[in-house]
Amino acid sequence: MPVNLTPPVATQLLPVAGVSLGIAEANIKRENRKDLLVMQLCEGARVAGVFTRNRFCAAPVIVAREHLAQPDGIRALLVNTGNANAGTGEQGLRDARTTCAALAGLLGCKANQILPFSTGVIMEPLPVVKIAAGLPGCVANMRADNWYDAANAIMTTDIVAKAISKQVLIDGVLITITGIAKGSGMIHPNMATMLGYIATDAVISQALLQQMVSVASDRSFNCITVDGDTSTNDALMLIATGKAALPEVRAADSKAYKTLLAAISEVATYLAQAIVRDGEGATKFITVHVEGGKDEAECKQIGYAIARSPLVKTAFFASDPNLGRILAAIGYAGIDDLDVAALKLYLDEVLVAEHGGRAASYREEDGQRVMQQSDITIRVVLNRGTAHARLWTCDFSYDYVKINASYRS
How far is CA 334 from the centre of its chain? Predict the structure, then answer.
């Protein structure tokens, strides 16, 4: 079961003016499950995004990038689960464009105003006929308050849907932000192997919207790992409908921008952490905090060496304080001038190692006590600077292997 993660409450997910959502059962991989989502946007809505850096990126990623770059604006997002449309070559590109054209015909817009997204099995042809047949149901189902069903419709191996809303006051105007995400396995930057959609009714310039989604993703989805595998299909999209009665946010040094960025980053961080808490087979949620580094990059480098180590992750699953595995990961992280005698390692508040070895005060029973918790912090103090980084990961359990061994069946 997910680690201290409860399902969202439908009534707590707030509509965002200018966004309508429709869901359908297209029977893409399994029957009797919601697997198709359309997010229709008002005219004039602005969309920005960040995508996977996997060179074998999926056809919908390629097409979505192309469509985002055109000047006509985006009128809808189309998401299917059950099939990734990745590793499908030229046919996959044609299929992604065909589904965009099918939805555009129903909505009365251009095909290049649709952004396609797919998630599921790689190297299988996209079932275009099923998707096209399901689209009228999505359109008929369009509602502004459909965020809960939308969060459920984009799930694959997720156990719990991931969604959150937040409101902030900017110059006396109440701004709404609602976001959903899916992800459970194949989670590692960049982009964390997920699909995420965050919408706000604020008015934001296109340039700042792109800056905002990049910064928010670096603070959240690019700080998580479940298994070290970066997917072919990752995308995080930020939508600003401009429906709020607030002047356009144009300056990055303005109070409005900083307030909105903080709120969107908070939404993104919640969704990112929810993905880790729902990591395939996860039983522990682990925060890795590396501080006292020369720069953030080396702090992340050490943090990820710990967070993606199968030996570290399996030790946490077993609640086995075999904590020399963490020292080993720090040592092979690739920081050539690291002074291991200067650093300190903590497990929550327990000092585990200092002066290059086991701390004199450390007791095995203290490590055991912390490792039996479901939420745990690994803290590494490098004592070589002022930079820091905080990452989130989970343990490796037997169920991770079972889930991935039977994923296609």
Answer: 27
| pLDDT tens-digit series, residues 91-123 | 999 999 999 999 999 999 999 999 999 998 899
Q: List the strands of the sheet with 285-293, edge to edge.
A: 357-358, 350-354, 344-347, 375-381, 285-293, 387-394
Sign of CA pseudo-dihedral 94, 100, 104, 106: positive
Q: How far apart are CA 71 and CA 263, in angstroms?
A: 28
Q: What is the pLDDT of residue 188?
A: 66
Tokens 């401009």 found at: 242
Residue 229 has pLDDT above 70, yes or no: no
Polymer length of the chain: 409
> 38, 78 in Cβ contact below 8 A?
yes
**Cβ(161)–Cβ(152) under 8 Å?**
yes
Query: CB burial class (10 A; 0-12, 13-18, 19+) of residue 33?
Result: middle
**Interval 74-99: pLDDT, tens:** 999 999 999 999 999 999 999 999 99
Taking only the tens place, the pLDDT of each residue in 23-50 is 999 999 888 889 999 999 999 999 999 9
**Which residues, listed in sequence order, are joined to residue 288 by a DSSP beta bridge?**
378, 391
326, 306 in Cβ contact below 8 A? yes
Work out whether strand 235-240 and strand 195-200 pair parallel, antiparallel, or are unpaired: parallel
Whether pTM > 0.85 for this model: the answer is: yes
Report d(CA 286, CA 371) in Å as an integer: 10
Catalytic residue IDs: 193
With cut-offs at 50, 70 and 90, classify the pLDDT of residue 271: very high
> Which DSSP string corresponds to 91-146?
HHHHHHHHHHHHHHHHHTS-GGGEEEEEEEETTS---HHHHHHHHHHHHHT-BTT-
Average model confidence (pLDDT) across the chain: 93
